[in-house]
Design goal:
- There is one protein chain.
- The chain is α/β, with parallel strands linked by helices.
- The protein has helices at about 15-25, 40-55, 85-90, 90-110, 140-155, 185-190, 195-200, 230-240, 255-260, 265-275, 290-295, 300-315, 325-345, 345-350, 360-365; strands at about 5-10, 30-35, 60-65, 65, 70, 115, 160-165, 180-185, 205-210, 215, 245-250, 280.
- It has one domain (about 1-345): Glycoside hydrolase, family 3, N-terminal domain (TIM Barrel), CATH 3.20.20.300.
- It has an eight-stranded parallel barrel with strand order 1-2-3-6-7-9-11-12, surrounded by four helices.
- The chain is globular, with a radius of gyration of 19 Å.
Length: about 375
């Protein structure tokens, strides 16, 4: 039962015998794929099919397929344009096309959830905080319009969405993959800016991801507490004030902002007690047993509502269509043409090189 609260990473391009035994025993609620899991479209589909076969209930199988530098299909598909490329182009119809193509690609791979759209406001497009190129707007209305259109058309093609990173990574001055950022912004200030995309788009988001950023003027009595573990932000703000009724998922608990402070076991319990429904362990999959045991120590009342929301979300999952090479080849060509349409031929055909010091682990996972 408690395994349903876990989303786990997979180590390679196929399941090891140890992973098969672990996943069969604890029955995770979902999985997340990265570049390390990608060799060919046929191989990914075989991997996702094997994950479904091990599961007693249909698992969430998610991926970060945003476009630009966060494109996990790199090597088997041209990188789709980034959110920044699309907002600079300024055509909302192209954002809808991006959502449709993304969903069709993921469906062929057997993936049923995209950990997108990013709902952070870009206050500085050059900030070294992992968000470079990933934001749909420089203000809340831009984010609502652009990310909302992308999200709507992706979901129309039966791929679930997950808005991120609640309440905001836009003001982070460092990359949470390495350290915990601290933001000095009040809740009232965020309700006038950063939280507007969530309050507006909440009914259209299948899930929301909480972030590892400390908001010093919100959790004033708990220095260094990440938003992902903050009951004030997750339960009282997102659940009660905003009224969000869908599934809430933590960002990766293996990120430096978390693992440097919290041990495995303590982190998952604190996350669920704060109001998250699912916790994500992307890289240290061997610790999943420890996380599973820790979740079993929680009161049944602490997980009852989470399990209900997860069950409700899973009812939306559609079994993916059969993989067809001809369909994949068509999507490959559509993605290449779409890249040129948004970025122009010269940029689309050039190798993307990011400035020194602006790289983030999020690009290479």
């Amino acid at each position: 039962m408690h395994g349903q609260l876990l989303i786990l990473g997979v180590h390679g391009t196929q399941l090891s015998e140890l992973e098969k035994a672990l996943f069969t025993r604890i029955q995770p609620g979902g999985y997340i794929l990265f570049g390390r899991n990608v060799e060919s479209p046929q191989q990914i589909r075989a991997l996702t099919d094997s994950l479904r076969e091990l599961s007693d209930t249909m698992p969430l199988i998610g991926i970060d397929q945003e476009g630009g530098r966060v494109s996990r299909t790199r090597g088997i598909l041209p990188d789709p344009p980034s959110a920044q490329d699309l907002r600079e182009k300024g055509d909302v119809n192209l954002m809808a096309v991006h959502g449709e193509i993304t969903a069709d690609v993921l469906s062929q791979l057997g993936v049923n959830m995209n950990f997108a759209p990013v709902l952070d406001i870009s206050y500085n497009d050059d900030a070294d905080n992992a968000l470079r190129g990933r934001c749909w707007g420089g203000d809340s209305q831009e984010v609502i319009t652009h990310a909302g259109n992308y999200n709507r058309y992706m979901r129309k093609r039966k791929v679930l969405s997950c808005g991120k990173h609640f309440p905001s990574c836009g003001l982070a001055n460092i990359d949470p993959h390495h350290e915990l950022p601290v933001v000095d912004k009040t809740l009232e200030e965020m309700f006038r800016s950063d939280l507007l995309p969530y309050t507006t788009l909440a009914p259209e988001l299948d899930a929301i991801m909480s972030c590892h950023v400390h908001f010093s003027k919100v959790d004033t009595d708990q220095p260094g507490l990440p938003a992902s573990l903050s009951r004030q932000l997750i339960y009282k703000t997102l659940r009660l004030q905003i009224g969000y009724e869908g599934v809430i998922i933590t960002d990766d608990l293996d990120m430096g902002a978390m693992i440097n402070t919290y041990g495995r076991g303590e982190d998952v319990k604190l996350a669920i007690e704060a109001g998250n429904d699912m916790v994500m362990i992307c890289h240290q999959t061997a610790t999943a047993e420890q996380a599973y045991d820790a979740l079993g120590e929680l009161s049944p009342y602490a997980v009852e509502d989470a399990l209900k929301r997860i069950h409700k979300l899973k009812k939306k999952i559609k079994y993916p269509p059969a993989f067809q090479q001809k369909r994949w080849d068509k999507l490959y060509e559509e993605t290449a043409q779409f890249r040129v349409r948004v970025m122009g031929e010269e940029r689309a055909n050039a190798d993307t090189i990011y400035p020194e010091g602006k790289r983030s682990p999020v690009e290479d996972y």
